[in-house]
Amino acid sequence: MCRKAWCNVKRVWRAKGTFDNIGMERGKSLWIKERNNIDDKTPRPMLKEKLTTEVAVIGAGMAGILTAYLLKEQGIPVVIIEANEIGNGITKNTTAKIYSQHGLIYDKLLNYKGYERAQQYANANQLALKKYDKLIMELKIDCDYEVLPNYVYTLDNDKRIVKEVDAARKLGLPAHYTKETTLPFPVQSAIRFDSQAQFHPLKFIDALAKDLIIYEHTKVKEIRNNGLLITEYGSVKANYVVVATHYPIINVPGFYFLKMHQERYYVVALEGYGHDRGALDGMYLDADPQGFSFRRHKDYILLGGGNHRTGKYKPLNAYGKIADAANRWYPDAKIKYIWSNQDCMTPDLVPYIGHYSTYLPNFYVATGFNKWGMTSAMVSAMIIRDMVTETNNSFREVFTPRRFMLSGTNKMLQDVSTITISLLSELFKVSRDQLDKIPKGRAGIIKEDGQKIGVYRDKEDKYYYVSTKCPHLGCSLEWNQNELTWDCPCHGSRFDYKGNLINNPATRDTFIACQRSKSAKF
What we know:
This protein is an alpha+beta fold and 522 residues long. 24% of the residues lie in helices and 28% in strands. The chain has a domain at 38-93 and 203-259 and 349-403: FAD/NAD(P)-binding domain (3-Layer(bba) Sandwich), CATH 3.50.50. It contains nine helices and 25 strands. The strands form four sheets. Strands 1, 4, 5, 6, 7, 12, 13, 14, 15 and 16 form a ten-stranded mixed sheet that branches.
């Protein structure tokens, strides 16, 4: 790389601008800000010894913490290993709604999986609601917990709402058809689920984690089939291993990279919106995936939208789309915080919870939460607890990772197609250009010595270089102008513009070993 100046530029990718707003806090959620104002956060040590335990949980997000807590309730020794800090992955960026109303899912479940499996799914998520309520009440956890209705609304497809209401009622769910909402615009109709909930996820997870054995900043470098987890300075030997890392970090066996993709969505927190316009009586979600979600938190409105597959950017300026909507519906409001998150999506919209693989009988997995992470995390914890303790569980079969998915065949084929195209794109030649043609504040892709290089040029005219070959399985990274990151469209790994890993399943950074350019910063 250092032998010649940058040349042979093959492609420059340009976006139409990015969302910016002086005075707001970008990239950190409201939950992080409020957590940082709490003085009694408990520091956790790094693992620097050899341990033996009954269960080792990899990942200290909502699913990992809940699983460990429910196992500990049964008197089972548990150790949690976390590469970063508690709740610092997907959990910190959730919209934190606890509900069994997962879009318009129940009509689909009845049609494709039958009554028994649909009933299992409904019962599991209703039980998860009750378990959250019980924990919060019994432990007296101060986490801004509120029991509220949840709505899925439509602007133009009443028939879908009617069918979903009928399906939900058949399964005994608290569903009601309505045309009345407290949204700042009229809807054609909506389905309302009563007795759902919302909370502050980090306050909850911190309270639950106080009495658990957790090692932070401890990255698992090797996982052996006998339950030995090797970290940089220590190890854990466990009879059972739970992989709760959002996206599974073991590629083979399991092959979850062929059975899931990841999707991103974006959120802004509005303050000063005017209670006469924003007195929401509950939580709201558009039945259209390209629509918006709403919820209150104290004096804020959380407005979400801009959904897309990770690595595929339409709209290019997702925050701008949400800002336009906020200005239209809440003209007096100011955007205080903006952030984003991503979810693992399964072809049939049901999570994978249970045995990791037939070849790893004492390993368990919890993944593929399909944007319903809070209830799915609790469902995962209950299922894995019962599997470890060999307790009968009446609803785990619908979630088994080994299930046959007739309803998800087309989506699975689309995922395989995306992977194939992304892998081949590393080999395609594109037209010549010049490095200087990358605009300031944007990124492009060049090719040198047969290697594709991602280049970000900041507003101070400094250049940052990364390999566009994802270190997970070799797909071609794409530039995300919304957040100035390099993202993988195959499996959802993400890296900042310097090449530092942000989201798994990749487990290492994507640096260029040797770089050279004017004003280059290494």
